[in-house]
Amino acid sequence: MKNVIKKNYDYEYIINKSKFIVCLRLIYNKEEINDLISDIKNKYRDATHYCYAYIIDNIEKCSDDKEPSGTAGVPILNALKRNHLTDVLCVVVRYFGGIKLGTGGLLRAYSNSVNETIKKIGTKEKIEYLNLKIIFDYTKLKDIEYILSKCAILKKDFEDKITFEIKINKNEYDDILKKLNNLNIIIKNM
User: Fold this and answer.
1) Which ranges of the chain does DSSP label H, i.e. alpha helix?
2) Do 7 and 26 meet the contact criterion of CB atoms below 8 Å apart?
3) What is 3-125's CATH superfamily?
């Protein structure tokens, strides 16, 4: 089971005079990550560090941004993994407060601040979707529209036959596919 965050959120913690601002962002594709990190850097221009981790599909990456190796990015990534998150970018902005935290202190600060922020906003199960293309005669249109009432119809083409490209909730897929198969129509996976 994979989860997503319920909303984008920023939350601030003070740990031994250093300020840690956890910025959680829901992401939809890898291409938007650099823009989101740039936006956060612009918002908190004078910060000391911008450490981050992200998970999207099965791709994950983290950065310590000049903190000692393994003390920031990895704990952020591990916190995301422990919460079974996907489609998420977490940037922890740090303003150095004058007291060195040491390796263990940094690990705890980054890990705990991310975990606490995730608890505050909560998560929800990610709904998986499957896409299909169906081709059918005009005589079956009403039946098809009734069966697909809970589905997203992405594209409709009306030519000799009707073609729908649809998005189906994975949990409802088998039931809907069975009903469609009973109508003897052409079904293609996308």
Assistant:
1) 33-43, 73-82, 102-121, 141-147, 173-182
2) yes
3) Impact, N-terminal domain (3.30.230.30)
Cα–Cα dist 187/98, whole Å: 64
Tell me the mean pLDDT in the region 46-73: 94
Q: Where are the domains of the chain?
A: 3-125, 129-189
Q: Over the stretch 121-145, which tens digit does the pLDDT of each residue have?
A: 999 989 888 899 999 999 999 999 9
pLDDT digits (tens, 9 = 90+) for 79-98: 999 999 999 999 999 999 88
* CATH entry 3.30.70.120 includes domain 129-189: yes
Integer Cα distance of 71 and 113 in angstroms:
13
